[in-house]
Specification:
The structure is a single chain. With about 260 residues, this protein is an alpha+beta fold. It contains 10 helices and 4 strands, in the order αααβααβααααβαβ. The chain has helices spanning about 5, 25-30, 45-55, 75-85, 90-95, 110-120, 125-140, 150-160, 170-195, 210-215; strands at about 70-75, 95-105, 200-205, 225-230. It has a 4-stranded antiparallel sheet, with helices on both faces. The longest helix is centred in the C-terminal third of the chain and has 26 residues, at about 170-195. About 30% of the residues are buried.
C-alpha cells in the first residue's frame, strides 16, 4: 500500500474553524478535578450523565475506530454488586453514579465499518481514505485465528525497521489491548472533566475484580475493563489530602 496514506494530506473542501475557548475556565476545570473518595447523597440528573458520556465519545482515538464502551450501571441490584466488586471502597460505596469504562480491542472492525460507510457516500475523491480502511486497518489490527498473525507482524516490523522508519504496532492481541486501553483512557479523561465542568466529581478506580465485573456486564472474554468511574457531588471530607505532584523537571523535558 502507498505510503501516501501516511504522508499526504487528504484534500477536500471541508472546513471547520476552531471555536474561541476560555483558557482560564479550562484551567479551573482541570485544577479543580480531584479524585473524590466520598460523595453526598445528591444524585446527578440523568441528562447530565448522558451529556458527559456523549462528550467522552468525542475523545481523540486512533484511526477513528472508537474501541470503547461505557456501561452506566443504574439498577440497584447491579449497582450494589458492582460496589462489592469494587471492594466496597468508599469511592464506589458512596457514589450515586457508577460507569464501567470498557476497552474493546476486538471491535476494530465495527469502527472500520462506520468509517467506510461514511466515506463511501462522500462526494469528493477519498480513494486514499477508503484504501486506508479497506487495506491498512485490517493489516494492522487483524490477527487471524487465535492471533497467529501477531508474532509474524512483529517480526516483519523488526526486520523492516533495520532499513527504514516503520510503525511498530499495535501488533498482536496484546498490542491491540494496549491500543484500546490508551484510547479508552482518553475518553475517560473527557468524561471526568465534563463531570467537573458540570459541577460534579469523579474517581477513576482500578481496584476491582475484573472477572466479576465482566460477568456482571456479560462482556466477552476479549473485552477489557479500563476503569470503573464513580461520580457524584463531593462530600466536605471527600478528598483525603491536598494534591501532591513531583517537581515538573522530573516529568517534563525539553530536548
Amino acid at each position: 500500500m502507498s505510503e501516501n496514506v501516511f504522508t499526504e494530506p487528504v484534500k477536500t473542501r471541508y472546513t471547520e474553524l476552531a471555536e474561541a475557548c476560555d483558557f482560564n475556565e479550562f484551567k479551573k476545570v482541570v485544577h479543580s478535578r480531584r479524585s473524590v473518595r466520598v460523595y453526598t447523597e445528591e444524585t446527578i440528573p440523568d441528562s447530565v450523565v448522558e451529556e458527559c458520556l456523549s462528550l467522552a465519545t468525542l475523545a481523540p482515538n486512533s484511526s477513528n475506530l472508537q474501541p470503547w464502551e461505557f456501561y452506566w450501571v443504574k439498577t440497584e441490584e447491579k449497582k450494589n454488586l458492582l460496589k462489592m466488586y469494587c471492594l466496597n471502597q468508599p469511592a464506589a460505596r458512596t457514589a450515586p453514579t457508577l460507569i464501567v469504562c470498557v476497552a474493546r480491542p476486538d471491535r476494530w472492525a465495527l469502527g472500520q465499518k462506520i468509517n467506510l460507510e461514511y466515506f463511501a457516500s462522500y462526494k469528493e475523491n477519498v480513494k486514499s481514505i477508503l484504501d486506508y480502511y479497506n487495506k491498512l486497518v485490517p493489516a494492522v489490527y487483524g490477527n487471524g485465528p487465535l492471533g497467529v498473525l501477531g508474532p509474524l507482524k512483529n517480526l516483519a516490523a523488526m526486520i523492516a525497521g533495520f532499513f527504514r522508519v516503520v510503525p511498530r504496532g499495535p501488533y498482536g492481541n496484546t498490542g491491540n489491548k494496549i491500543w484500546a486501553h490508551k484510547t479508552t483512557a482518553l475518553a475517560c479523561a473527557n468524561m471526568m472533566l465534563a463531570f467537573r465542568a458540570a459541577g460534579y466529581d469523579t474517581c477513576p478506580m482500578e481496584g476491582f475484580d475484573e472477572v466479576r465485573v465482566k460477568a456482571l456486564l456479560k462482556l466477552p472474554r476479549s473485552a477489557c475493563v479500563t476503569m470503573v468511574t464513580s461520580a457524584g457531588k463531593r462530600a466536605p471530607h471527600g478528598i483525603y489530602a491536598p494534591r501532591l505532584r513531583g517537581e515538573k523537571s522530573l516529568f517534563i523535558h525539553t530536548i
